[in-house]
Model the fold of this input.
Amino acid sequence: MSDGAHEELMPAVDIAVIGSGIAGLFLANRCAETGLRVALITKKSISTSNTNWAQGGIAGVLDSNDRAAIEAHVQDTLSSGAGLCDEKVVRSVVLEASDRIRDLENHGVRFDKNQKGEYDTVREGGHSNRRILHSKDATGAEIERALTKSTSGEIDEDFKIYENWMAVDLIQREYGNPKKGVIGLWCLSPSGKVHTMPAKAIILATGGVGFLHSSTTNPSIATGDGVAMAFRSGADIKDIEFIQFHPTSLASDGAKPFLITEAMRGKGAVLMMNDDYQKWKSSKNKSPEDFSFMWKYCDEGSLGTRDVVARAIDSELKKTGDKNALLITEHLKRNELLEEFPNIDKKLLSNGIKLGIDPIPVIPAAHYMVGGVDVDCSGRVKLDGEVMPGLYAIGEVARTGLHGANRLASNSLLEAVVYSERAARDLIHLASKDNLQKLPNNLPFWRADELQVLVEHAPLRADLHALRTTMTMDVGIVKNNYRLKRAKRRIAHLEGEVKRIWESCKPTQDLVELRNLIEVAKLVVERSINRKQNVGLHYNQDLEN
Done:
């Protein structure tokens, strides 16, 4: 800590946004436009987020008068959610889609159009119609580009961006009384010093927890920070046991995890195991669809929902002993594939695979946190079912009720922008009535000066590896009671090891992230043990009968 408290105290703000994906950027822009004092805290660069990695697109019916199309989107979402969606939330989000997509376009987002100037919509797994807008195979990156550009135009003395800063914890108005809400946060600066930021409202837009598993389509920053901070502050966490695994992550040796978008299967790509592929190759001009193992698992074949497809691949891998499944595209026109999936083609070529010519090796990988911090229709965080003062959660970190037990493909970007707009409206309204929280005269500073500098990082890396291995082996796509209990014991041991370091050393980003990952891992395991019915993404072998 600094010798002078004035060096640790950051300027008070109206709105502190933690995270710079679509949710955080959209809200920060909206609030800054109205003159609110906004701080955006992001632990890497502004463009390092799950949004930037999103390939598929954003789901939505653009014609708000097309009731049949809107109803179909509603029903597809409810079906994917396996009975656990909040239907009122589903209908409201789907109805807002056209307005929010127009908002993105107004920010400069460029969605693909055909030669007639119409939107080039695609179909993805679980969708009954073509309703996914995209920008080639890098929709998330395009949204991030446009919103980042918009954000740069808003930066002034009342809108500050703190890149490479990390939120460590939320500050309660009254320590030990979470119902009083939160009124600030502690932030770790690039220099390693912890600062105190007073804020009338704090928005968690921190993304998910993909890095909890060894194989993930998420960037390494996806460490569950928002869930962990909210939980420690007393917030309700719901449905956290529903971790969505994307069925088709590139499985080439030495390759970093890389998502092969669902839109590829919407285009006609087919899933096979190696034996299926060999049988198809030896057949004479038969449809590859006839050889897919997926027909054993669902009526939609390779276009089944993510939970079904991921479990099917997991099951086939265990039966056959194969290292991966295969995604077949060689029956499709390569030029059309290159037009639609240029970034995927580039990535595949770097691994010696040609799109439209070679089979693509794929495995399931942790992709999306369906549950999270429980919020109301405006993104306000709940505690015991009631609104918690001063705290909002939007984007993947939030549990809105839209996804139920399994997220429908491409609904996440839609949810993020819808709830960002709602939260922004609520904050702007409160500010206009001077009803944002009043900040106290004094906020507590970080812990004692006697904390030592963390010198050895190797134990942290070993603990992180052990945690990710445990979650991958014991708390993955298919669970059982024995493995869940074993995971609980192992995580408890790791928690004790990390707690000793945390209590004696000054925080580093690695230490903060590992602490958060352990917190979320405990929640996932606990809620998985308590979930007594197989539904959606939760599948426990011991609950089969």
Summary: DSSP finds 16 helices and 17 strands in the chain. The CA atoms of residues 61 and 67 lie 9 Å apart. Residues 1-6 have pLDDT under 50 and may be disordered.
